[in-house]
Amino acid sequence: xxxxxxxxxxxxxxxxxxxxxxxxxxxxxxxxxxxxxxxxxxxxxxxxxxxxxxxxxxxxxxxxxxxxxxxxxxxxxxxxxxxxxxxxxxxxxxxxxxxxxxxxxxxxxxxxxxxxxxxxxxxxxxxxxxx
Length: 131
Hints:
- The protein is an alpha/beta fold.
- Helices cover about 35% and strands about 15% of the residues.
- Strands 1-5-4-2-3 form a 5-stranded parallel β-sheet.
- Residues about 15-20 and about 115-130 have low confidence and may be disordered.
């Protein structure tokens, strides 16, 4: 079994446990992300979706699929906020928890809701409100 497969199974287990227990997950909304961009705040945006999802639509973040996070920990910044993004918030929350629990990160946040519907005709496209 490769590391990615082991990690995916661990993430599934964490997801099940997360729904059963209260979490102190640090979250951010798309509106807050938009404000951070507009104010020129420095942060790292990491998209933990799969490459085919990223190709459909993305916010310009660095693509590191969830199963590859363990191999790319050195690419995650510790000197600024790190915003994790996925389609629904589940994978990004698991990535944040993994980095906190296994590598001592305390600067990660998960986007609470990226995008589940298809109003633009492309799944995975975030809609950042204009106002």
